[in-house]
Amino acid sequence: MATGRANSVEVISERGRIIGLWESGMPKREIALTTGVSQRSVQRWIKRFEEEGSLHIKPRSGRPRVTTPDDDARILDAVEDQPLTSAVHHTRNLELPCHPCTTRRRIHEANIQCYIPATKEKLTQQQWECRLGFALQYLQADHSFWNHVIFTDEKYFSSVEARARHSWRRGNTRYHEENIQERARSGRSYVLFYICLFL
């Protein structure tokens, strides 16, 4: 038996009322006026009750799933390997028998969502160690120390457009290395601004 509002108690009761009025001798047109249901619906439910003896909606087979379990697995493997690639590219590259919208649904079913990727410089191991060392060195510094520190920030403007606009990833993985898009480098000049905050 199908579930949902179509077989809810309220809806079944309304259909039962239609059948009760019809069995009592009321014309179908008057039943429609009394119940507020279209005459076509009244006729349909009376006919179904006569043929099947039931007021419930039967389960329907629905449209068959376009992708196979193997297709679904290949989609997820491709997204894991290339999170900065669009669903359109994955659909074409894997030669899937479906529309890119279906590919997106399969990715969403795996709890993988589409986000704007973080754009950062890819750091070397030495750079990671230097940054970590700096943080640990001043970890216990108090307010009197930081009150005499000048903080600077910088912003790069480049004429090169970022290659990927979206990233397929799970929650809380924005800064995982595979989900970070490296800042584009074309050999062209950058405009560099420095902003200083005096405390």
From TrEMBL:
InterPro entries on file: Homeodomain-like_sf (IPR009057), InsJ-like_HTH (IPR055247), RNaseH_sf (IPR036397), Transposase_Tc1-like (IPR002492), WH-like_DNA-bd_sf (IPR036388)
Domain annotation Transposase Tc1-like: ranges: 72-139
Insertion element IS150 protein InsJ-like helix-turn-helix domain mapped to chain residues: 14-65
Residues in coiled coil: none
Record-level Gene Ontology MF annotations: DNA binding
GO cellular component, as recorded: nucleus
Protein name per UniProt: Transposase
Compartment(s): Nucleus
Main location: nucleus
Pfam families associated with the record: HTH_28, HTH_Tnp_Tc3_2
Gene Ontology BP, a term: DNA transposition
